[in-house]
Prior knowledge:
Distance between the termini: 25 Å
Number of domains: 1
Structural class: mainly alpha
Number of strands: 2
Order of helices and strands: HEHEH
Shape: elongated
Amino acid sequence: MKRRNFVKAAGGYVLLFPLIKPFANISINEGDIDLIRILKIFKEKKFDGVFIPDHTPQMSCDAPWYAGMAYTLGYMKADLNLI
């Protein structure tokens, strides 16, 4: 399946954003994907589903998972605002 056709196949379902380095929980800006390019394709295809990050890093704080997820979601939201 071509990458752009994946958006059509995804419909309104949940889409995970894996970070494609050897399995590691790294920040979204350290992964091997071009998030801006991917989000532009989703916008072009009028995707109206839910984006959920995959394997966010844990921060050094009282709520490590939540902080990592908040950082990643904020990063994705900022990228969405750029396009």
